[in-house]
Amino acid sequence: xxxxxxxxxxxxxxxxxxxxxxxxxxxxxxxxxxxxxxxxxxxxxxxxxxxxxxxxxxxxxxxxxxxxxxxxxxxxxxxxxxxxxxxxxxxxxxxxxxxxxxxxxxxxxxxxxxxxxxxxxxxxxxxxxxxxxxxxxxxxxxxxxxxxxxxxxxxxxxxxxxxxxxxxxxxxxxxxxxxxxxxxxxxxxxxxxxxxxxxxxxxxxxxxxxxxxxxxxxxxxxxxxxxxxxxxxxxxxxxxxxxxxxxxxxxxxxxxxxxxxxxxxxxxxxxxxxxxxxxxxxxxxxxxxxxxxxxxxxxxxxxxxxxxxxxxxxxxxxxxxxxxxxxxxxxxxxxxxxxxxxxxxxxxxxxxxxxxxxxxxxxxxxxxxxxxxxxxxxxxxxxxxxxxxxxxxxxxxxxxxxxxxxxxxxxxxxxxxxxxxxxxxxxxxxxxxxxxxxxxxxxxxxxxxxxxxxxxxxxxxxxxxxxxxxxxxxxxxxxxxxxxxxxxxxxxxxxxxxxxxxxxxxxxxxxxxxxxxxxxxxxxxxxxxxxxxxxxxxxxxxxxxx
Length: 546
Ligand code: SIN
Fold this sequence. Notes:
The protein is an alpha/beta fold and 546 residues long. It contains 16 helices and 22 strands. It has helices at 38-46, 83-93, 100-108, 110-120, 152-165, 232-239, 269-273, 299-313, 327-333, 335-343, 400-417, 419-422, 445-459, 466-483, 491-512, 530-533; strands at residues 4-7, 19-20, 26-28, 31-34, 53-56, 73-74, 145-146, 170-173, 177-184, 187-194, 201-205, 208-211, 243-245, 250-257, 277-279, 318-321, 353-362, 365-367, 379-381, 386-387, 433-434, 537-540. The protein has a five-stranded mixed sheet, with helices on one face. A five-stranded parallel sheet has the order 8-5-4-12-19, with helices on one face. Strands 3-11-10-9 form a four-stranded mixed sheet, covered by helices on one side. Helix 1 packs parallel to helix 11 (400-417), helix 13 runs antiparallel to helix 14 (466-483) and helix 14 packs antiparallel against helix 15 (491-512). The longest helix is centred in the C-terminal third of the chain and has 22 residues, at 491-512. The site of succinic acid has 11 residues, from helix 7.
């Protein structure tokens, strides 16, 4: 498969703030990891104990997307399952754009990493024979999802964070915002960070910098993602000259609670895996009209079907019905969802749950190979921030936590095998500065971010057209012009600039892909075009003042 390359013609500054490494406070590590979700923390745990590792996170360590994951982790453990079947299901969901080498690594290294999680003490649900319980999610041809009730991410993250916090060789710095990666002669040398407010700066130098900062769900006003998911990693990578890929593939989860007080709480796909069905406003099932697998069709198909039903009937939501399961089962299997719904007066053992699709996951990100390497020497990416091709055009459910584990482990292996080159050396400090003159200007970041999120939601959502995308591009261009050259005097301006870069690239990718494939659906090009479009759109980053 060939990449469709778009050279970096976007007008970006190389760095967003002024600094000079000569007088900037700095510290030295062997490995610096940006982000504290499963990918970041597991990478730190996988590095040899004789390396000095730093994790930085812009909020506190437990605020990330992994912690919210409900469903579970995909792994072929059933006696009728195999890594080949997991491979095939992943490729089928990915609609022709998966990287087979990376998917092979994912499925074949899954079981050893799950065994490792069990050794750390992760408490997955087990059956009466003490075997890991397996459930079903969409587009898996067999029960393959291990879980801890409906709070799998929290159980895994809590366990791994407590393991990493006990290590002497790993330092964790919270409320530390990665503003830019530092490069010298095209090689990554470290990370420029600020405090929470964006007023004090510090550099962390390392021969290995790993971006595990998560996705860009917060480009959308309706998302299951936490506030931190503003795509900082991909934007800073782009400024530094990294390649970004598959940005047009934004995953919308079919079933997110639709309640006046809450429209971003996930109702896990595992609920459908346990037999829940979708019903329209008349109480009738509709999924059989859309796909043979009905409610367990690939996620993009189910989201689009719900969206179309809502549009056809002029409704804001549909319903999820699992009332045929007993209260006792639902309370045990889905304790978080059960009690959240109940807090809004919905008893899922008796009532249908109102649901609508909303943004959930970013398939695209910083382009890496199957060892998490980017095109910038010393710079790696893993987890949702990265795109190594395992998801293709549509991620198979519960492959994302697994991705963080498998490729985080691979980074650890790479560090171990290259220890002589990777240990920080005396005199590593590079000479880098940015003395660009910025304009001082008051920016209402909250309202700008709100405007960006609405336009992305309305125009770059589940169903796109050339017109909707062009309109979004026009607004984003106007907004970008308003902050161009403006001093990033607070963290929110950095976030806004990051979001504008990424929104521009997502829209550009969606405009460029004149077909429908996986999560990218163009109503003006409703069919897939395998002749012209069986390739990935890659943006080659860079700035106009490199
Ligand atoms: C879910 O529980 O439905 C989310 C699982 C996932 O995003 O893979």
